[in-house]
Input
Amino acid sequence: MQIQDKLTMPIGVFDSGVGGLTVAREIMRQLPSENVVYFGDTARVPYGSKSKDTIIRFSRQIIRFLKTKEVKAIVIACNTASALALETVQAETDIPVIGVIAPGARAAVKETKNKKIGVVGTEATIRSETYTKVIRSHLPGASVIGKPCPLFVPLVEEGFAKHSITEQVIDIYLADMKNTDIDTMILGCTHYPLLRSKIMAYLGERVHIVNPAYETAMDLKAVLKERQIANTSGTPGTYEFYVSDAAEKFTKFANSILPYDIATTQCINIEEF
Output
């Protein structure tokens, strides 16, 4: 393969559904020449309540699909899959695979002044304590408070991100966290950046909010540069979107948050991979 062909190969990005679009959006903003192939596992969402073995099986299937698109790197744009499957699939895959947890954890460590960090995420992500482990590997003695917020995902997906009902749910979940002295909080689910302004307003200015979607895009940029596989052509990237179900609903949601309109989303049978 010509080196130029390698540079223009796409980045594979996957998530359990639409949340990973916040990561795709940051990749589009920070790496505008990179081509992207996105897969949302909308038939099997949510991942947050499923077992580790199931998440690993799903991740392997999706990676097999993305490799048919000749991707040069893969971003697991899902905190649950990053927590439960990343190490396994990294060991099995011959191209770089990065998750969203390590970049977010490192950014929180850099940001905190008092070593007290909050993490919100799905039940599986919080239960795995992966954020806690990564944070403490960089900052021994850090105090990490995790809080599962399962209703945040359906609120975002049903279009209630700006609704007053979301403010009520934020209050129910985060009232205890608000009364602690954390100075940094990680949005440990890719849907949650769409609630960032409401969470910031609720917690107040003393708490710095870390968006792992942005940090992951910056990590990807560094990996591509290090491997000398970054697309430096200056040509705007192209984007393809695939889902395992409900393509129309996905397209509508994507168009509400991405910087440009996508015309079509293709539906595939992921169980075939």
About this structure: The chain has two domains: 3-99+214-272, 101-212.
